[in-house]
Design brief:
It comes from Neoroseomonas alkaliterrae. The protein is an alpha+beta fold and 127 residues long. The chain contains four helices and four strands; from the N terminus they run αβαβαβαβ. The protein has one domain: 2-Layer Sandwich (60s Ribosomal Protein L30, Chain: A), CATH 3.30.1330.
């Protein structure tokens, strides 16, 4: 009896496994100095290359802003949003359609392997 039940549910389990969500697209990271939402020349070039890659598509371009944990939470939330907004504005200025760009400020996050890794924006093209 139990075997029959398992065989009956196998197609449903297989269908559920086949409709699992697709993995998130790889992120393009842009790094900032402490307490700054400005890009240096190298970071600006990363954004220009990301814009060139995004221009050929039609899917969303998600811009996630991060800040490190040092300082106040409200300050770091605002900083993460300012960083994301600056990168989004550069993407749009470099030819990415405004309606495709979505800003997601993530606020302060714990320091990662290096403190600079927490001071970043991630650009996800197509997701």
């Amino acid at each position: 009896m139990r075997r029959r039940h398992l065989l009956a549910t196998a197609p449903a389990l297989l269908a559920a496994a086949c409709t699992a969500p697709a993995p998130a697209p790889p992120a393009i990271a842009v790094f900032f100095t402490a307490d700054s939402a400005s890009l240096d020349g190298e970071a600006a070039e990363v954004v220009r290359r990301a814009a060139a890659a995004a221009r050929g598509g039609t899917g969303p371009v998600t811009v996630l802003g991060f800040a490190g944990p040092a300082g106040g939470v409200a300050y770091n939330r605002a900083l993460s949003e300012a960083r994301a907004q600056h990168v989004a504005d550069m993407l749009i200025a470099n030819g990415v359609a405004r309606e495709r760009v979505r800003i997601v400020p993530r606020g302060p996050v714990p320091f990662e392997a290096m403190a600079t890794e927490s001071r970043r924006v991630e650009i996800r093209i197509g997701g």
